[in-house]
């Protein structure tokens, strides 16, 4: 055969190969469609009404300990992918890990869209240095804030090279104009550092609260607020959060200066476990807010405060539960005497828990124990005084035991031993 004939034949083979490849591609597509149809016939989930199959998927995610993301359902079969995409409630919990790539900025809007009109629970986890924060991605997050119901920011900085003086910047360049930020559905906000105390810009925390008109719970853990150059810190006008009912500082490393700049008139519960609560600041906050506080937990109380603890508590007649975790003898003594001498003080108190500092319970005078007996005799409340290594006077114990026989719930002693019931 000539060269031209051979070349022509090769071209013919190429054309036939291309035609066969197209035919093979079509056959593979047809097979995939038929296989999906067969899977749908055999799959009991796919045969169920969408409402039932969606509920099965939802219950699986509730019961599964590993809490997988719903995207795993997209890779099983076409029928399951259709069900997953149609089940908006599957896409309401979003966990975002930093560091991350810019491509996540394109993925997140798709995820948010699948949640349809359901409110979202957002968890942002930041590992290592703040430079891991991706402002391109975070800008997408904040622009969808109108759908957030729960927002949690976690900082896992258990790394030796982490700079402790680095302030976390949540907004970046967009901080200059926050008109785009809106959190109308937000009810709970949690900002927590796992290992070390980190600094956050106070103005940014205030802005999150300001843009959340329906917020009811705020929790801080191991964070401090940077007020440098913050107009809120220099202004006499306090940030008003009229719907906030619960404020929790989760540990004694948290900076409580936040209280100096806010007014919380609806507050029901306050947990402030710092070592030395300053009476002047606490009283000013309570008077400014005028809140119907029912649950108050403090760490210690500054022994040199010009405002005694009982004066702060006197202004909270709605209080039903009071706890101190690092109580000094002076605060305990003054409180016992005030409760005994002023029956009208804290008329609704039904739960009193005091944990003393180290061996300081031995510094509580006998007269104070007798004052507590008088207070408990006129009040029906649970009383737990823990950390008492040395038993109170015998006459005090006898009175406590009589009250216990009459139904009072009283615990005085160490974690292991209640002197009231010990014989």
From TrEMBL:
<protein>
    <recommendedName>
        <fullName>F-box domain-containing protein</fullName>
    </recommendedName>
</protein>
<feature type="coiled-coil region">
    <location>
        <begin position="10"/>
        <end position="37"/>
    </location>
</feature>
<keyword id="KW-0175">Coiled coil</keyword>
<dbReference type="InterPro" id="IPR032675">
    <property type="entry name" value="LRR_dom_sf"/>
</dbReference>
């Amino acid at each position: 055969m000539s060269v031209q004939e051979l070349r022509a034949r090769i071209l013919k083979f190429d054309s036939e190969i291309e035609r066969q490849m197209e035919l093979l591609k079509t056959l593979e597509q047809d097979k995939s469609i038929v296989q999906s149809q067969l899977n749908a016939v055999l799959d009991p989930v796919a045969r169920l009404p969408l409402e039932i199959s969606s509920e099965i998927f939802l219950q699986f995610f509730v019961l599964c300990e590993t809490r997988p993301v719903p995207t795993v359902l997209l890779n099983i079969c076409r029928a399951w992918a259709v069900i997953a995409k149609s089940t908006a409630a599957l896409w309401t919990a979003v966990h975002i890990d930093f560091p991350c790539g810019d491509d996540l900025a394109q993925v997140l809007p798709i995820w948010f869209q699948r949640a349809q009109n359901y409110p979202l629970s957002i968890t942002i986890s930041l590992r290592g240095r703040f430079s891991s924060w991706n402002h391109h991605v975070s800008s997408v997050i904040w622009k969808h804030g109108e759908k957030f119901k729960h927002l949690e920011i976690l900082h896992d900085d258990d790394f030796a090279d982490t700079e402790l003086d680095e302030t976390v910047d949540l907004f970046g360049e967009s901080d200059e104009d926050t008109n785009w930020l809106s959190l109308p559905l937000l009810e709970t906000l949690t900002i927590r550092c796992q290992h070390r105390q980190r600094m956050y810009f106070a103005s940014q925390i205030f802005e999150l609260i300001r843009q959340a008109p329906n917020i009811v719970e705020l929790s801080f853990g191991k964070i401090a607020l940077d007020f440098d150059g913050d107009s809120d810190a220099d202004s006499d006008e306090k940030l008003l959060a009229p719907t906030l009912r619960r404020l929790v500082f989760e540990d004694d490393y948290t900076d409580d200066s936040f209280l100096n700049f806010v007014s919380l008139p609806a507050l029901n519960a306050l947990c402030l476990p710092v070592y030395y609560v300053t009476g002047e600041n606490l009283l000013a906050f309570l008077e400014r807010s005028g809140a119907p506080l029912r649950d108050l937990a403090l760490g210690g109380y500054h022994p040199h405060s010009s405002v005694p603890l009982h004066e702060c508590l006197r202004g909270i007649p709605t209080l039903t539960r009071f706890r101190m975790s690092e109580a000094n003898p002076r605060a305990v003594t003054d409180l016992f005497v005030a409760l005994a001498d002023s029956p009208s003080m804290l008329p609704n108190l039904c739960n009193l828990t005091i944990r003393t500092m180290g061996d300081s319970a031995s510094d509580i005078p006998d007269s104070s124990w007798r004052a507590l007996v008088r207070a408990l005799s006129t009040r029906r409340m649970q009383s737990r005084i823990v950390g008492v290594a040395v038993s109170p006077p015998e006459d005090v114990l006898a009175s406590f035991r009589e009250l216990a026989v009459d139904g009072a719930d009283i615990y005085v002693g160490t974690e292991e031993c209640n002197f009231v019931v010990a014989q």
